[in-house]
Amino acid sequence: MLGMVAAHVGNDGTFSGPDGAWEWLWVSHGFPSALFAVLAGVSMSLMVTARGRIPWADVSRERLRATRIRIAVRAGILVVLGYALTALDTPVVVILANLGVMFVLALPLLRAPMWVLGTLGGVCIALGGWVARELALALPEVPVVGLLWSEHYPAIAWMGYICAGLIVGRLSMWSLRTVWILLATGVGALIVAYRLQALGVWEGLDPSGPWLTTEHHSYSPIEMLGNVGVAFGVIAACLVLVYPGHGVLGKVARTVLWPVTAVGAMALSAYVAHLLVIALVGSEMVWAPSNTALVALWLGLLVGCGLWRWFLGAGPLERVLTRLSSDAAERWA
């Protein structure tokens, strides 16, 4: 979430030149939004298993049906909210409606075998960007359905991230074995991605072409595979930081990271809040970025979310999602 905010309002020198720019903010382009989608897949798997408390083998048909209803309702809310935020006419491309479409596509995959998720995710990463571009050229813009092949965050391609997250969500989050698996897989994905690019250049292919480019949000196989690798590495690092086996150190880490944890737990509310700030301040906040404004927005989110979660618990929009989706599941499951 903090990375996505930096991508929108941080000054990395792209628009305003080197004066006052933080060049390291290049990491905020592409990686955070991909991680956002991977974590959405993780969350869906954790919803099925009650955050890992129910073994996969013991998940009943009734629970699976109820979870699908909860996710479907959330998907509908995200689509509506996404279009509403887009209507604010900020320079930010809002991801929420696209994410809602991905939620719907994920419904039949919640209980799919791991090999199916891996295969489907691989196909989406390898071919999704190309398919989306071809469909965009051949088909007219269609509300909601068109988000499958939209120019930004095409669901056809981004389901690769969702599938990756669904797989991660089935792993034991408190196992060091999971940490090593994620770390090894993440590093392996990065090596394979950039090795493939090197081989393509060696063979005389254009490194800026649609198959080999590492340009952020290009949705090339190289870029998306690299994003998955980074996402797995970040998740592994976070699990290490709060690993219960660290004893006192783990408790200290969880205490120190409380504001960051709060932003993560209130990601939807934080996302909407930062878009409202941009809408109120004006488009210059994006087109003429200032890292002073970025730090102020970061601090506002950290303090605001931290205090809200400490005194009130779940975020305001998270409460709405939980209430509406849970009521629907109780009524229709």
Describe this structure in words.
Helices cover 68% and strands 0% of the residues. It has 333 residues and is mostly helical. It has one domain (2-172, 250-332). Helix 4 (96-106) crosses helix 6 and helix 7 (176-202) runs antiparallel to helix 8.
Kindly report the average pLDDT value: 91
**In the residues, how many domains can be counted?**
1
- Low-confidence regions: none
The secondary-structure element order is HHHHHHHHHHHHHH
Q: Indicate the percent of residues in helices.
A: 55-70%
Alpha-carbon distance between the two ends: 32 Å
In short:
The chain is mostly helical and 333 residues long.
What is the strand and helix layout of this fold?
Blueprint: H1 2-9, H2 31-48, H3 61-86, H4 96-106, H5 114-138, H6 155-168, H7 176-202, H8 221-241, H9 248-256, H10 258-265, H11 267-281, H12 284-287, H13 291-312, H14 316-332
Helix pairs in contact: 1-13, 2-6, 2-8, 3-4, 3-14, 4-6, 5-6, 5-8, 7-8, 10-13
Brief descriptors of the model:
single chain, 333 residues, mainly alpha, 14 helices, 0% strand
